[in-house]
Amino acid sequence: MQTPIDDPNQALQNFLDRYCASNTAPGYAVMLRGPWGSGKTWFIDQYQERLKTQGKRPLYVSLFGVSKPSDISDQFFAQIHPVLANAKVQKTWAIAKSLLKGTIKIDLDRDGKEDGTLQVAIPELDKWASTEGAILIFDDLERCGMSNEDILGFINQFVEHDGYRVLVVANEEAKSIDRESGFATIKEKVIGRTFQIRPDASAALTHFLAEVSSRKSHGILAEKQNEVLAVFQRADYGNLRQLRQAVFDFSDIWDSLQADGLDQKAEFVNRLLNDVLTLSIEHRAGALSVSDMTELGVQDWSKYFNEKEKASEDAPLSPKEMALKRHGLDQEPVLALTASAYAEFFEKGDLSEATAKESLANSKYLANESTASWRRLWYLHSLTDAEFRSLSADVFQRLVALEYVSEGELLHAVSMMLSLASQGLIAKTSKQMMVVAKKVVKDSATAGKIDPGSSGDRSGSFSRDMAAFGLGFTDRNTK
Question: Which of 84, 117, 152, 284 is the most exposed place for a label (fewest CB within 10 A)?
Fold first, then answer.
């Protein structure tokens, strides 16, 4: 049985090998196309290295900003004669070109003797450098300052008259190309074969990981490459630039947490990786805004128990809704960090020490016996029946014992009890629980036990009426 090809561009690479190795001039150029971020430049960089190992010489030109043929001549000339990369020589060369109107006198081998003159217009490569095995690569066709008809006509000189092997790299779908008059006609004359470059996420990820400077985050990313690729493939944009930025975002947020032993909390690490990569990719794709992030994972218990409030399955989904559905974020997920922490990170590019500390304290994945019962009860959907009974009883007892002196804690405890009572999940009716709540507030005020929030426990991205400690209130609609 044939071994499966892991590289999605292996067949293309095989074709290019035959094209570049042919003893007979092909008589046509090859176009390599793909949308922005699909890995076109990555592929061509790797293929240039492959050509060099085969004893061939690739000559690469970026057409970005090129407005005249001499701009291309300059790039070819500098590659064939690396000595011209020297700043002093470049300056002398530029002066000579302006004075001599395109003719340059220069000592190329630095033996102290003039080696004649060179014209620096359209490059006649065979007259002043060895061209055997040269492969010409023109990148960024869609960003060229020359008209597409002119640049392809220029390239055609090498293809039709001189027998060069020429690769043209472009986003052919760009408006500047496909809507320009005459492009299709001149393309048909110059371009013999056109291929779509497919993102090689696995190879690209290996390269991106080498760029991660943080040793701590690098270890996690390297160990969980399959999970990283799974999120990228699930998003289905095929944009390697988004993958690269998502990797760096995870590295940044991991370093900002600064808590010992987090890498040993497997469930937390897996969820954090999934959260950050997903939000990073979808945010940069324009599907999720920072404000959208603040609503992620917010527990709306009334909606959870009320089937009537579920949206119609026939209603068309917005880009935001489609993104959430793709990644399972439409089902009120239990995030590794609070939604407000993610919103802060993607808005400001950093996570403050206070936010990081608060978010870790609220994380369901890091909860233990010492974690406040109201914090654990907040993640109602992930509790077992036994855990629910134990935690709800403890929160109620602490509430009536006036133990919640912080405004934020008091509001969370009351909100939870009111919501549970309305759903019939505790032995109090809604009216009974309302009476209890009012009495607790009155008694706490009389005893001087209520701290109205001066400690900042209601800070964060939510409004003051919606959350405390970065967690949204579970019964926000109750008067």
Answer: 117
CA–CA separation, 464 and 280 (whole Å): 27
Cα–Cα dist 173/179, whole Å? 9
Determine the pLDDT at residue 452: 60
63, with CB counted inside 10 A (0-12, 13-18, 19+), is buried
Which helix (H) or strand (E) segment holds residue 467: the answer is strand 467-468
Quick: pLDDT tens for 107-137.
Answer: 444 555 554 444 444 444 444 444 455 899 9
pTM for this entry: 0.68
What is the rounded CA–CA span in Å between residue 339 and residue 469? Answer: 11
Cα distances from 405 to residues 408, 445, 450, 478, in angstroms, run 9, 10, 5, 21
Query: Distance between CA atoms of 236 and 322, rounded to whole angstroms?
Result: 12
Work out the pLDDT band at 177, boundaries 50, 70, 90: low
d(CA 154, CA 225): 44
* Phi-psi sector, 6: left (phi>0), alpha (psi -120 to 50), beta: alpha
Query: Quick count: other Cβ atoms within 10 Å of Cβ 15?
Result: 13
For 289, 348, 408, 474, the CA distances from 344, given in Å and listed in that order, are 12, 6, 20, 22
- Burial of residue 253 (CB within 10 Å: 0-12, 13-18, 19+) is buried
Mean pLDDT of 408-423: 89
Measured distance CA(279)–CA(295) in Å, rounded: 13
